[in-house]
Hints:
Elements: H1 7-21, H2 25-52, E1 70-72, E2 83-85
Amino acid sequence: MFGRLGAPEIILILVVIILLFGAKKLPDMARSLGKSARILKSEAKAMKDEGSTPAPTGPPSTDEQTPAQRTIQAAPGDVTSSRPVTEPTDTTKR
């Protein structure tokens, strides 16, 4: 009953999707899906790199060092969505 999908069935499914969502919204949906996939990939890579670097074994230094500012990478050519990220700092004195 639910065998393999042939070309006519796939074409019918694509036509229904275009009718439901509209041809104008499909490129925007694909673009946002691509951005989400790139962000997910970069965050997964950052987590992997962060997990593989050894933790410092010595006591924390008393010098106040400002951490380097990170920037979330946007899609190529999309200048408006890349922004610097301010990470929370621990301001409590112990």
